Amino acid sequence: MKYLLTGGAGFVGSHLSELLLDEGHEVLVLDDLSTGAIENIRHLRENPRYRLTVDTIFNAPLAAELIDQADVVFHLAASVGVFQIVESPVRTIETNIRGTEIVLNNAAKKGKPVLVTSTSEVYGKASKVPFSEEDDCVLGPSSKGRWAYAASKLVDEFLALSYFKEKKLPTIVVRLFNTVGPRQTGRYGMVLPRFVRQALDGGPITVFGDGKQSRCFGFVGDVVRALAALTREPRAYGQVFNVGNDREITIEDLAKLVRDRANPTARIEFVPYDRAYEAGFEDMRRRVPDLSRIRALIGYRPTLGIEQIVDAVVAHERACA
Ligand code: UDP
């Protein structure tokens, strides 16, 4: 099979490329290397079944040409990271909405299946945990920049599901819950690579807010296996799936875990949200996926717990230093 990965040089895309190549498939990647990086995929470029095209998803004729060559499309190209969303909201909204429009529009012309990656951010401030796919999405007002990301991803979801319904295009939507693992950069705000780097550099480890907010961290290896499996399950099309791990940990406990495993002498420092992001920043207190839908359909079970993930990230960061 030939797969097209938009945003394939990013963190998730590089792991998915690796999996697909290991399975013997061909992988085409379209990436503008804005947040993706050559270091993520350097080891794949020697493979004759791998082809990287460096360009933006806004180049519609090129996207059309690559979609035409592929059997299945993973649409991963998107703005990522809370820092980027707060600093470049126009780019975030345009990349997420226009990029997805171009992919779906061209995939529909050729009837190519598309998996669209969305985010657990779409659940927003919903207070009923765990979050299941049919729950309400509770977003804040448009005056608060953070919500632009969730809103743009929700538009992507509506588009994907509408293409399925109206144009009979096989589409799948996945909502990723804090995917982590080796090669993820902390540059755009992601907490685990930041904590690990801070600990290895001698600290302090910066916990934003009171640290009592919690997240569930999904190992990238588990996540990419789930994405590939979904595209091979005909009943997955036309549906939305949570993907991640359902074990919850507070950010303060994550900081302690990283400290204990990476550098017990590193100090933990609490930084108010206003200073970390921008005035009026709203964070989510809890975010836990209900994984019953994906478990029932493809038997999905996360394999790595947070301790093993932290160890893998620490080992990777040590090797890069
Ligand atoms: N966070 C933190 N310190 C950091 C970066 C992030 O305490 O250096 C917090 C952030 O405020 C949030 C959680 O860690 O509560 C997860 O942040 P991330 O940006 O990784 O993902 P999010 O779940 O917010 O999309």
Secondary structure elements and their pairing?
Blueprint: E1 2-6, H1 11-22, E2 26-31, H2 38-41, E3 50-54, H3 60-69, E4 72-75, H4 82-87, H5 89-110, E5 114-119, H6 147-167, E6 171-176, E7 179-180, H7 191-200, E8 205-208, E9 214-216, E10 218-219, H8 220-231, E11 240-243, E12 248-250, H9 251-262, E13 268-271, H10 273-276, H11 292-298, H12 306-320
Parallel strand pairs: 1-2, 1-4, 2-3, 4-5, 5-6, 6-11, 7-10, 8-13
Antiparallel strand pairs: 9-12
Bound molecules: uridine-5'-diphosphate (UDP).
Residues 82, 121, 178, 189-191, 194, 206-209, 213, 215, 251, 283 line the site of uridine-5'-diphosphate (UDP).
Radius of gyration: 19 Å
CATH architecture of the domain at 2-180 and 218-245 and 288-303: 3-Layer(aba) Sandwich
Under CATH, the homologous superfamily of the domain at 2-180 and 218-245 and 288-303 reads NAD(P)-binding Rossmann-like Domain
The helix content, as a percent range, equals 40-55%
Main sheet: strands, sense, barrel:
7 strands, parallel
- What share of residues are in beta strands? 15-25%
Spatial order of the strands forming the largest sheet: 3-2-1-4-5-6-11
Q: Which fold does the CATH topology of the domain at 2-180 and 218-245 and 288-303 refer to?
A: Rossmann fold
Which regions are unreliable across 5 or more consecutive residues at pLDDT < 50?
Answer: none
Helical stretch tally: 12
In the CATH scheme, the class of the domain at 2-180 and 218-245 and 288-303 would be: Alpha Beta
- Averaged pLDDT: 95
> Which small-molecule ligands are present, each listed once?
uridine-5'-diphosphate
Structural class assignment: alpha/beta
